[in-house]
Amino acid sequence: MSVKEKQINWDNYFSNLQSKGRYTFTFDDLRNNFELSDESLLQGLYRYKSKEQIAQIRKGFYAIIPPEYSSQGMLPPTMFIDDLMKSLNKPYYISLLSAAAMFGAAHQQPMEFTITTETPAPRNIKNKKLKINFYSKKKWPLEGITKKKTNAGYVNVSIPELTALDLSGNSHIFGINRIATILHELAVEMNASTLIKIASQFTNNAAIQRLGYILEKEVADEKLADSLWKVLEERKFSAIPLSPKKEKTGASNNCWKVIENMEIESDL
Question: Are residues 106 and 63 in the same domain?
Fold first, then answer.
């Protein structure tokens, strides 16, 4: 087969994938499609990568870059994350900052894409054009995950109630002020009865305590806060600091047993 014939086959292969709404492929897919050596396949991949017509997401997994995304040199993660996680045989949902953004509550567009999956999580992906952080859970949520349509199919996303609890459970990473800012906008999308259901399956009492405290004291949404209290009052829980990154000093004379070791300063 001549170089020109190989080139035509590659172009046809990528066009056929896109005609089916697919923008990703694996190295094994190429092996099954082309009767070429691995060395020849790698040479072909290099040619298309150098022209920024494909991008390597992680070892053995690639995304096609159509002309409308050529200036970015990368597909939006929502267009390939479902295929990526299927290739890794991992359950997942778009979570935390990225989930909040999909519900219009990011305030500022997050610089990273956040995914939650089962333990152990894959290694984070980081390069000049892409940053995906993977968070893991030992106990997978039975509820609180929905599907959202994208240009390349459907993706799993945490609903606002699970997103809020996950954010509160990771306050040591994202910071109380940032979480409070997001919750001001995310609370509009939250439902009290749904929050009770999701919080009931949440084993992290501290996450429920902080979220309840912020919803009551900062967001001033008594209905949502009361729904969390209905879950929490059935459990035994200890005093915790509002900010896990600061000293445990301050008043805790609130029903949430949250030590007020900082003043919340949201951007809203």
Answer: no
